[in-house]
Design a protein that fits this description.
By secondary structure, this protein is α+β, with helices and mostly antiparallel strands. The protein is built from 19 helices and 18 strands.
Length: 773
């Protein structure tokens, strides 16, 4: 009988053999299911990342208000919204003041009822913080009564800090003003979300990371479905003895692999649901993820459910290509054909051809929508080539080894007879290390990794800003904030934009700062000064004619004095930290800021390092001044948090740890399986007087030789892949030795797994292991 019915019958027989082989059969099936399950769980997590990001972006767009097309007149369906966000001990707090202007005013997502003046609706995380002792200073800043809880539809994550407070009076901002200060009048919260295009470096990093993880999963699944190969061969020989032909035996073997992979799908699904419960711990901009958002799309889930069993069957059939299953036993090719090298070199060559740019661009697809796929395919081919080269390199290396201590000879002879299992066991480590090296090289070359901002020991420097839509000065704000506990020094100024060679910025914008001489000395380190003086810095020159926007919407001409000196770099030890003097520095006698429109009062303050909560005291004082005062701590966060790379940088350590854990699980299972299948040989050696230490060292050498050769390939392949990626973005290689820490991690994982296998080795080398013979 042949055809689909024969396939179904033989696959079913193989599935029965996998689960009815007694304790040993169940152990083999459990190992296969565990290995496949880990891979399936990781695939499901990767497939869920786009869905989680999309769900977060949808909720962010649903609660946002657009600054374009603001309404100028109140109506029955309009609402005034003013930003009132703040920070508390390094965490962002998103806040808004609401004032409905009609009965049909739109409610923010997740808000059931508008809070009245003096009340607020908060997120569950913010409510818990305010109730705790840690939120004592924050309660002073948010003196509203909690009357409601924001639902999930209005939150980006379960631990996001958000509040909506009711306001009795809000002043709408001027839609035509460049500063966009004041409240915004809207009739809907939802806006059209237009995602920003990914930078080329970020697309490269994402594509390479996907390729590395997918290759690691493929290696793990391919290794897992080979567990129990020798025992399976003996069962297939028994089937030949009772009349089965070679094609039937191979179909039965495929059925065994299929049953293990199907059970692995169940295990992987369970692991996925268990892992996604930790989604709130995965933070993007310090906000966790809802577990329900971590769900793969239907297409991805169906693809994984179909691809894993098919891959398991194909790998099982491929493993039997050099095995002759006869009725009286299994005969493997004792005189192995030399491994062909040409196709192993072809894979990385094609991968590099897809990645190396031509005339500054990758061949044909650079910048197009297929660019990410091109990078992923090229990276996967190069990593696959590294994996394929390892068995050939191990065979060529051990073929020339002779002599040595008994443990070394045992290991070398085992690798000479069949080095494939040892190479496959460490191939996952090689793929992960090569991918990590390339990522490190790309990160170093694109200047993505920034050092943390360090304080100078004299206290943190912060700024407080408040808009002055109708002009004014910074004196009152400076006086109020300077008296706050923990503030050592304060210097205030008024800043605004002046326009050169035309109005509206067509001829260029020149920043202008107006402050008294004492403040200018602290801020810019100027020399002799008296009221009425003007100084110029970058982007300005003496005699320049500027146009200033007045409070009556008229343009006021103003000329920089021809005698204005250049502002020097700061020389005083107590001068505030700054990056340089931009534009024009003027004193109040030279420029009256009360006549200007759309200016801002900015106060720079140095805090006392001996007062731990000085920053929070300052923010509380600013909140009492008014909701429009924005306090910014420029030295609190590392600068990469303000770049597009920050989510990926935060994800890389977690991804690296997950990948190494995945590979460690694969190597542990493979090592245990190899020892279990060789227990008869190990017991025989022990019975003939071989010391256990000799056998143990032979196992160590059998792992060490492929690992060292594989690390050499991994370093070569990783450096080549990273170099190619940097060529795509036209960046030089800044650190050729970025691979050293990664290689150390890989060797450490291998050493730990080998050490963990020694107890099982000592147990299997006992002579009583021969009783079953």
């Amino acid at each position: 009988m042949s055809g689909p019915r024969a396939w179904a019958r033989d696959l079913a027989m193989g599935a029965r053999c996998a689960v009815t082989g007694g304790r040993e059969g169940w152990l083999r099936t459990a190992l296969t299911a565990a290995g496949v399950g880990i891979g399936v769980a990781l695939l499901l997590v990767m497939a869920s990342v786009p869905q989680a990001l999309e769900a977060r972006e949808r909720r962010a767009a649903a609660r946002d208000v657009s600054l374009d097309g603001q309404l100028t007149r109140p109506g029955p369906a309009t609402l005034l919204v003013q930003d009132a966000g703040t920070e508390y001990r390094g965490r962002d707090i998103t806040g808004s003041l609401l004032l409905p202007e009609g009965p049909r005013a739109p409610k923010p997502p997740g808000v059931a009822e508008f809070p009245r003046p003096g009340e607020m609706t908060v997120s569950p995380a913010l409510a818990a913080l305010l109730r705790s002792g840690e939120g004592e200073l924050l309660r002073e800043r948010l003196p509203y009564r909690i009357t409601g809880t924001i639902g999930r539809a209005g939150l980006l994550g379960p631990d996001e800090l958000v509040y909506y407070a009711g306001a009795g009076h809000l002043v709408p901002g001027d839609p035509d003003s460049r500063s966009r200060q004041g409240a915004v009048r809207v009739d809907d919260f939802a806006r059209v979300h237009e995602p920003h295009p990914m930078r080329t470096e970020l697309r490269l990093l994402a594509a390479m990371a996907c390729a590395v993880v997918l290759m690691s999963v493929a290696v793990l699944i391919a290794t897992a479905v080979r567990f129990g190969g020798e025992r399976r061969d003996l069962r297939l020989a028994a089937l030949r003895l009772v009349g089965a032909d070679s094609r039937m035996t191979r179909r039965v073997a495929a059925g065994e692999a299929l049953s293990g992979s199907l059970l692995g799908l169940v295990v992987g699904t369970g692991l996925f649901f268990a892992v996604r419960g930790f989604a709130p711990w995965v933070r993007d901009h310090r906000v966790g993820v809802f577990p329900s958002d971590v769900a793969p799309g239907v297409t991805a889930a169906v693809g994984i459910a179909l691809a894993v069993p098919v891959a398991a069957v194909l790998v099982s059939l491929f493993a039997l290509r050099d095995v002759a299953i006869e009725p009286l036993g299994v005969v493997r090719e004792t005189a192995r054909r030399p491994r062909r090298l040409w196709w192993r070199l072809l894979l990385p060559a094609v991968g590099l051809a897809l990645l190396i740019p031509v005339d500054g661009k990758a061949p044909g697809l650079y910048g197009g929508w297929l660019f990410g796929y091109q990078v992923a395919i090229g990276s996967a081919l190069l990593l696959a080539g590294v994996t394929a080269l390892l068995p050939w390199l191990v065979g060529a290396f051990v073929a020339r080894l002779r002599g040595g201590p008994p443990s070394w000879q045992l290991a070398v002879r085992r690798l000479q007879l069949d080095g494939g299992p040892a190479s496959r066991a460490v191939s996952g480590i090689i793929v992960a290390v090569a991918g990590a090296i390339s990522l490190q090289l790309l990160l170093a070359g694109t200047n993505v990794s920034f050092p943390l901002v360090e304080e100078d020991g004299r206290g943190k420097v912060v700024t407080a800003t408040v808009p002055l839509p109708r002009g004014g000065d910074a004196g009152s704000l400076t006086e109020r904030l300077a008296g706050t506990a923990g503030v050592r020094k304060a210097a205030g100024r008024v800043t605004f934009d002046a326009f050169r060679d035309g109005r509206g910025g067509r001829g260029g914008i020149v920043p202008v700062s107006v402050a008294d001489c004492a403040s200018l000395r602290d801020l810019a380190g100027i020399g002799p000064c008296r009221d009425g003086d003007v100084f110029v810095g970058r982007f300005a020159r003496p005699g320049m004619e500027l146009q200033l926007q007045g409070v009556d919407e008229k343009w006021l001409p103003w000329k920089v004095p021809d005698s204005a000196p250049a502002a020097p770099e700061p020389v005083r030890d107590d001068a505030f930290r700054r990056t340089g003097v931009d534009g024009v520095l003027a004193t109040p006698g030279a420029l009256d800021t009360h006549r200007l429109r759309a200016a801002s009062a900015v106060v720079t303050l140095r805090l006392d390092p001996t007062t731990p909560e000085a920053l929070e005291y300052l923010r509380n004082a600013a909140a009492r001044t008014g909701p429009r005062v924005d306090v910014v701590d420029t030295g609190q966060r590392p600068p990469e948090e303000t770049t597009d790379y920050w989510p990926l940088l935060r994800a890389l350590p977690a991804g690296a740890a997950l990948t190494l854990a995945l590979i460690a699980a694969s190597l542990t299972l493979a090592t245990y399986e190899q020892l279990r299948e060789r227990k008869r040989v190990l017991a025989t050696l022990s019975a003939f007087g071989t010391r256990t230490s000799t056998v143990a060292w032979s196992v160590v050498w059998q792992t060490a030789i492929p690992v060292l050769l594989g690390m050499t390939l991994a370093v070569t392949g990783g450096l080549a892949l990273g170099w190619a990626m940097l060529r795509v973005v036209s960046r030089p290689v800044r650190d050729w030795f970025a691979f050293l820490p990664v290689v150390g991690w890989g060797l450490g994982v291998v050493a730990l797994i080998t050490a963990a296998a020694l107890p099982a080795l000592w147990r299997l080398t006992r002579p009583d292991g021969l009783r079953a013979e």
